[in-house]
Amino acid sequence: MAGGEVGGAGLADEAGIRAAYRLHGGEVYRFLLRGLGDPAAAEDVTQETFLKAWRNADRFDPDLGSLRVWLFGIARNAMIDHARARDVRPWHGRDSLREPELVPEPGDVGDPDVADRVLDGWVVEEALRRLADHHREALVETHLRERPYDEVAAELGIPVGTLRSRVFYGLRALRAAMDEMGVSL
């Protein structure tokens, strides 16, 4: 493909989405940063843009426009959705499923280690979305946020043993979800 472009079919696999991110991630981030005026929000929406591109790779038609144009269309729509959601729920902060270190600094986009971390973050986020709410909440609070079991259990109004069971079965479900996605641990 000309100019290092990635084809739509290639976006559905790991190498293709990595290549698309390396080619266009920094530019998409800067576009979103200008539109949103918030680095954290721009990082979130950049990540969402590439996740949507990965999920909808079959919808990309190179005869209608370049990958760059398609990605910017996704980014624009995601930015509008984010701004609307922020206006409706201004008290909400960052998405609790993401860890800040999974999102690259704008200058780091070409770094393979950063791309790997971002892709790993997308995979974990997608797998977490496939879990039951109570399992996801238990895993996010205890593992991602590293909060003590007794504190989380008290906040949720459940016994510590119940929380431990939710974490156990949540991890089992997370492994199964990742297996379904074709990801090995």
UniProtKB/TrEMBL annotation:
Matches recorded under InterPro entries: RNA_pol_sigma-70-like, RNA_pol_sigma-70_dom, RNA_pol_sigma70_r2, RNA_pol_sigma70_r4, RNA_pol_sigma_r2, RNA_pol_sigma_r3/r4-like, WH-like_DNA-bd_sf
All residue ranges annotated as the RNA polymerase sigma-70 region domain in the record: 21-87, 127-176
Pfam families given in the database record: Sigma70_r2, Sigma70_r4
Key words of the record: DNA-binding, Sigma factor, Transcription, Transcription regulation
Residue spans crossing the bilayer: none
Similarity annotation: Belongs to the sigma-70 factor family. ECF subfamily.
NCBIfam families, alphabetized: sigma70-ECF
The name this protein goes by in its record: Sigma-70 family RNA polymerase sigma factor
